[in-house]
Each structure stands twice: as C-alpha cells, then as structure tokens.
Amino acid sequence: MLGASATFAEGDDVIGSPQRAEERNFPYRDVVGAALALILVVVAFVVPRLGNETITPIVHRTAESVRDFADAAPLFGFRDVHVGWGTPIAVAVAAAVVLWGPGLAQTLAWRRLTVGVWLGSALWAMALALVDGWQRGFAGRLTSTDEYLHEVPRVTDIPATLRGFADRILDLQPDSWTTHVSGHPPGALLTFVWLDRIGLDGGAWASALCVAVGSSAGAAVIVSIRALGDEAMARRAAPFLVLAPAAIWVAVSADALFAGVVTWGIALLALSATRTVPIPALVAVAAGVLLGFGVYLSYGLTLMAIPAVAVLVIARTARPLVGALAGALAVAAVFTLYGFWWFDGYQLVQERYYQGIASDRPFAYWGWANFASLVCAVGLAVPAALPRAFAWSRVRARSPVPVLVLSALLAVVIADLSALSKAETERIWLPFEVWLLAAPALLPRGSHRFWLAVQAAGALAVNHLLFTNW
C-alpha cells in the first residue's frame, strides 16, 4: 500500500506543478522517517533493561527508585497492561476520525471545523483517560501530594503568597512548596487557587479545566495556520490534531493548561499580524497577555518566543510586536509589583531541580531518550512528515506549516540541551508538541487515513500497556 505512487499522488494538490515530480518520489522518506523514530523508541525502552551503569535512566538505582521513576522509561509511569470502560469509546473515536475525519475537515464550514477540532480533541483525551477509570484516570490525577491542589488550602493571602513565593522554592525547608509548585512560577498555583475561590474545588474541576483548555490547542493551531494564509493545510492538519497521542497527557496534566494558554497566544498573534481581526492592535496586546502569563505558568515557556518570531516572519511584519510586548510586560509588572521577581524564581528553581530526582537522571540517557518520549507523544506520523518540513522550497516560501513545525522543533532541541528537561518531556513539551502535530498535513492526502490509523494505534498501545503518571 505504501509503495503505490498513485495513492500518494493525491497529495499533489497542495503544491505547485514544478514540485510534483519531487513529491511523487518522496514517499519512501515518510516510511524511513517513521521507521527511524520507531527504532529510537524501541532502543529507549530496551536500554534501561540492559543494566548498563552509564547509559541508564537513573543512577544510584534501588528497586524502589526504579519502580517509582524508571519502570516505563523513557515515559514516566508504570508497566500495567489493562483495559477500562474508556477502551471501547477510545476505539470508536479513533475509528470515526480515521474513516471520516479527513473528509469532514475538507467540507465543514470553518467555524464548525474549529469547534469540532476542540470537541473532538477533548473527547479523544477523555476516552483515553477513562481507560484508567474515573478516579485513577481523571478526577484524582491532580490531587497527589506532589501536585498544585495540595497547596491550594495553604494559600490564604494571595499577595503574601507572591511576596514569599521564591523563599519557599528550595527543598529541605519546613514550608517548602511541593514538587510541582516549586518547579513553576506562581501563575500555575494561582490558577488553581482562583478556580477554588469561585467554588470549583477538587480534582475533577481542576482536571476538567486542564482538559478543556488543553484540548483547545489544536483549534488554536489551525486558526493560526489559516490566519497565516493556508486554510487548505489547516484543514489537512485538523484530523491529526484531534487524534493526537499527546492527548494521553492532556488528560490530565497542568502542562495541558499551559499549552492551551500559549497556543492561543500564538494564534492571536497570527490574527493580529495578518490583520484578519477588526482591531489588530488590541488583539496583539491580548496575545502578549497570554504569552506573558505563560511565562508565569512555566519557566520553559520563554521558548515560545521562537514560534512567536516564526509567526512574524511568515506574516512578513513586526507590527504586532509593540502591542504584544506591552501585554506581556503588563503581566510581568503585576507579578513584580506584588513581590515575585521572575529571575529570582528561575535561578532558585534550577537549584531545586537538582535537589530532587533530576540529580539521579543522567543526561547520557535522557539527552536522547527525551526525543523517544516526544515521538510517543506526537506519534510516528510526525517524523514521517518531518523531511517535508525541511524542504528548502517550502521554508524559503515561508509556508506556515513547515516554518511553525521547525520553530517548535528548535524550541525542544534548546529545551533538551538545557538539561532542565530530563524525563517527563511527554508532558513538559506539550506546548511545543501541538505545533509538531501539524506536520502530517504535509503528507499526501491519500495517505492520511493510514497515518491517522498509525497515530491511533500508537496512542492506544501506550495507554493500555502503561499507566502514565499524568
């Protein structure tokens, strides 16, 4: 099936005539790219079981530490073959998207498609979560002693919390923040505090917020691509954004919330840059507010500056920059005036990072195994499509999908080289993964159902063979 050039030639409608011969000769690279990525994943799963003391996911190993931190390396979780009442729902959703997703993406009115991507992504994420059951897979995910909700009752005075936030980052203090709170700026904790203050307390509401906002990221991606002038490719990307293996970590981790916030920030920036909204300057400020708040959700989201610059390069304008910077600086000013200095937090969190399990996670393994985790989250269709994203003709033409994909890839490479993302990147890199998930739009249309099936099979396999921590 993969060797049938007639099938792949159906994708020629997305490129110009001079490139069609090249496109017809390209399919073997799709399979090679996917195969190499699969080999990387297999090696990353096998190496931890070889007993090597140098290339290992965790040093100073004990039976307890391996069970808690490396049982499913390179993913964070446990080996656990299981099914649940979410299983038939997940299979049904996958089958529906594979069979009808590409066709509906081409025929639905734009607004319906955008809402459909959002709702479809949420349904897929919830179905995968419910494979593990309501409490274990959804409502209880954010209630552990390491999570944000554990600290919510301790926040009785928000201004005082902000003033003293940095003082509680380091470990081994009587009032140290729990793991996730200490590892992030205060915006993450405050989000769940505000949710609690309006009466939506508890794990189910917190998880629902993460799924609702996180699953909207796919809609933001297609809005961005369309705004930047390529609705055809936005429609082609839509089914892949719905049926993303990353949905396993959208339901449920707070990083899904972070991803939704900053992805909509990029989408608003694209709308402002192309002046496809009534008041572009105001939308640019809103984009800056979301991106600025993102930096106070996670320190690593400073790297969203790379996709933001990519948007301005594609749109060939720097016009929204002033408004976006104004919005971002306004957010920074509020946090600073209330007593939290971001750079103090960033410096302290690096010290806290190595006070924990990170000190036992060697870069010799995680420096490359992180990318195996990334493949598990984005699926094999993304590495299959990456050679097309690197095509110089597309990059030179500033085609939205290739440039945005390459900008996200650059961001994860920088994050990896920082050595501050050793392990758990399947969830930590969600804000970048959503852009990589647009890459399969570059694959020939006739192959889309095949690659969607591959994506679904990968997600279902991970979710049923492992119990992921997020």
Automatic annotation (TrEMBL):
Which domain of life does this protein belong to? Bacteria
Q: Does the keyword Cell membrane apply?
A: no
Q: Which UniProt keywords apply?
A: Membrane, Transmembrane, Transmembrane helix
Transmembrane: is it a keyword of this entry? yes
**Which residue windows are transmembrane per the record?**
28-47, 83-101, 113-131, 204-228, 240-269, 281-314, 321-343, 363-382, 403-421, 450-467
Q: List the protein's name.
A: Integral membrane protein
